[in-house]
Amino acid sequence: MSKTRRNFNGEKDLSRKAASFRMAMEVVKSKNEETMQKSAQAIRLLADFAKEEYGLKNLAKLDSEQMSDFANYIQERLDNNEISAGHATNIISSLNTIFTYYYRTDLNISAKEYGLNRGSRFDNVDKSITDYTHQKLSEFLTDKYLSTGDIKYEALRIQTELQRQLGLRFKESALFTGKELHKNGTIDILRGTKGGQLRTLRAFEKQKELINSVRAFRKEFRLNNSLIPDNYRYKDWKAFSYNVIRNFREETGIKYNFHGERHHYAQTRYIELTGHEPPVKRDAFEENPVKKEKDLEVRLQISEELGHHRVDITSYYLGK
Question: What's residue 113's pLDDT?
């Protein structure tokens, strides 16, 4: 008689070593000690991420959009040289095995799609948020704000504009104040950056108007620290924001993720700086009309604007 598999939420706190190892022991058929340790480490990493980012203690409550965020998190750690390519691959492989075992293949991550496979680093997959999707989300948030009077919806709408127009990460946009813009037209991004690393952007008229609207919104509703209401902690704000996105998807059937706004920013900047669409927007067999020297120069600039320090990461946003 075959052993009955425990439910995916059989362990209450998988961020604990004992709990994660018990799950690994059940899933790893070979019972190889090293493989079980790697699986347990991957489980703990995901559990810590889910707890910190979404306030979730039960991995059974994760959805595919949150796993997409986790994949982006692993991809950024790889880019920042915090983990090796082999380690990143092992994390994804271990988690996919676990999800399959518990009949949660909806949570599986495509290592190739996120540039985390051992072979070719990047696949030409356009992950940018289209104008149509962005507009629909903006309308959704505006309707929620007008019908409820809850300023959180308007704050989130402004936040998505910051991500789209400035290429900010979710945390960077949430902690944005408007004071980052200086009289000389430069924007200093520091709060919420990876490792507290400062980066400087150039503001054009459209971006200046957006930042002025941030200042006006904070002043009108007396927000002291950022776009986040004063009675909200960052992790509570992120949980609220992702819950709104789930509601948006359920009500409209439209998929959306915050990171896709950074993809849109990178692609828009490529067009502005070269006059041509990036490879990810073109046919796979179409030759890039941008000369190699110019392409490399632009990719390096965009990489710095996004807060990365390696030009190859731009293939994830722009294609190759």
Answer: 75
